Known about the structure:
CATH superfamily: Aldolase class I
Oligomer: single chain
Bound molecules: 1,3-dihydroxyacetonephosphate
CATH class: Alpha Beta
Amino acid sequence: MRTPVIAGNWKMYKTVNEALEYFTSFREKGEAEGVETVLCAPFVALPALVEAAKGSRIGIGAQNMHWEEEGAFTGEVGPSMLNAVGVPYVVIGHSERRTYFAETDEAVNKKTQSAISHDLVPIVCVGETLEEKEADRTQEVVREQVVKALAGLSSDEVTQVVLAYEPVWAIGSGKSATAEDAEEVIRFVRKTVADQYDQQVANDIRILYGGSVKPGNIDSFLEQPDIDGALVGGASLDADSFARLVEAAAKRGGEG
Length: 256
Ligand SMILES: O=C(CO)COP(=O)(O)O
């Protein structure tokens, strides 16, 4: 059985103090058995959050990293630096990085490989734009992103990856995909993994939905057989609303 993941992506929000204040109120409510809860915060808040999260079931993640160990890459943060802080997760290939920072599928692949070889769990994002959706290219685009992101990984390594299907048009728009449409794409992603590797890898890999997930719609996604949780932007910024999402996943785990 796949353990559900509820991951918050704060994006470029919260100072260190704001992050700690949030964590104090979130910690009790956000601790749920049977759910992997993750908070992906800006780099500067990571050391304080990792310290605050010690002894809890809440994992802390970065939102990006460079693939190289170290070097003359002004402004970048490398995988060993995340290891040294004790961060277990890293978001890779978010559409905002692809769009605003020109991140290519090749870069996403190098980062994913580097994360795996540094024992970091990569949360790898894929998803089509509105234009691609309207041109009926969703499956083609998502397939290519998935295949390229995972290229060169062994079957064992692929099962350590968490994939997140985030249709670009649903991010921050208040307009989520319907649960049925998200399920259809995610089922297709799982099939893509089965075709590239084998059925066992496809059965084991966690695939999340992201894009305007809120307490009011999370259940509809979680009830889909292939959706293993959510990657959440806006609704993760408030401790109460994020805790409600974790609770929804915990409740479902209990029922299932
Ligand atoms: O980009 C997202 C998570 O990575 C989704 O953002 P929203 O939940 O704000 O739509």
